[in-house]
Model the fold of this input.
Amino acid sequence: MSAAVCLRHALFVTEQNDIDWGKFDGFSWIRCSGKGNFLSSPAVKQCAEHCVQGGARCIVIDLQLCTGMDSTFMGMLAGLAMRLTKQTGGGRLEIAGASERNVCSLEDLGLDAFMEINPSGALWNAQIDPIRSQLQRWTGSPLGMRERSKEVLEAHKILSAANEDNSKKFESVVELLEKELGTESR
Done:
């Protein structure tokens, strides 16, 4: 089944936006509930972009309620981490509440080099419960199928650029999506 057919099929699934967020002193917090995947990653990305536009230098992605992550979600996280580091001159992405499984998934792709996972000395560590109790539902703009396909492609290009092993892992996905979208590899 092609990537576009998979995306079309997935769009018939109820798209729940289980993303909550809040802005706090020194950081913005985004919580993803359920599966971190190609359906939820655009909402997390939109929320993070909103935070960056509002001046955030540190974004915390809370994975406590995240049951797993697909490669699109992890590529979006890597892209966000890289953007924060470049754009805000010393900005950073921190991951909170990551389960052992989620930590392993991020480390397997070498993404721990771009973000701090469950940092023990983080500013927010002593405030996790009060932070989570103050979060609000994120309401972003839904993406159409072509835009979602572009997001999936971008995430896999980011993963491929992260290291040589990832490039090999995701080469066929990138090629297939580029072909279906009518774009070229850059």
